[in-house]
Amino acid sequence: MVASDFNTNHSNAVAGEQLADEQLDSVQSMQAGKRLVITGCIVAVLGIVLHCYFSFSAAFEVPAAARESLLLVGAGVVLWFWGAIKYFTGAICADAREELF
What we know:
By secondary structure, this protein is mainly alpha-helical. The protein has helices at 2-57, 64-93. It is 85% helix and 0% strand.
């Protein structure tokens, strides 16, 4: 009887530790996702600003730098999208009582 109580308590403690580790992982995933979303927005806006600068400074001829700045916009969008997926994946696994934003 005593051994079975010990095993039950031990398995409950192990399950509690695993749940705490999963919660910590989901919170870290959400924080990383937020950072990626913000970084992606900054990179995309920087790409847009550079594209406008290069496009308007060339007076009707779009230089190669203007086209290459569109790659920067695309990279920003990819970072933003990756961050959003990472954040929402963490939010799905997180405890509902935690702050999600």
